[in-house]
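User: I'm writing a tutorial on reading structure tokens. Could you give me a worked example: one chain, its sequence, then its tokens, then a sentence or two explaining what the tokens reveal?
Assistant: Sure. Here is the example chain.
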Amino acid sequence: LDADLACPILDPDGSSYEGGLLLGGGTTLDLNGHTISCTGGLKRAIRMGGAMLRNGTIANCSEGLYIDTRKAVVEDVTFTHNTWGVFIEGGHDNTLRNNTAIENEYGFLLLPGEDDSGPNDNVLINNLATRNSVIGFVVGKGRHNRLLGNTASLNGKGFVLNSADVFAKANIAEENLGVGFEVLGDGALEE
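And here are its predicted structure tokens:
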């Protein structure tokens, strides 16, 4: 990307459009420090799987980034002023590294898909969730998801882990309004 991009896309009937950009098939989108923002009713900035997204900002969307497939890699992206910064719905084998979710409602969400499966085998490494009004990191259901070295600060809640099979190590929760770590499943939580 060589300039900021505002996506004012509407369906022909004037209703809001969910689409945004679709990344897949081994593509790489390097934002080169630029911003993709949702305007004109666009709900989702980017939907991706099997692709790489890096080096920029996603702002002012319902869903900044939506992942429902496999093998997405997201690095050095800031998600701000969205309802959901990053939403992995049933996705598998995705990696999020060195990203920031700031001033969203939810920072990073990993939730089951429509068929109640997943998310499985995702890894979040060295991400920061800060000043998100509801929760910084959420993992609901799924198997073998790993949270390593992430920080949740100044959120409504820091980490909510509702999975019997999540591994969390070297994560930091500080100065959140509610609980720092809420563990509702039997996942492994290490300091």
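What the tokens reveal: The chain has a mean pLDDT of 89. The radius of gyration is 16 Å.
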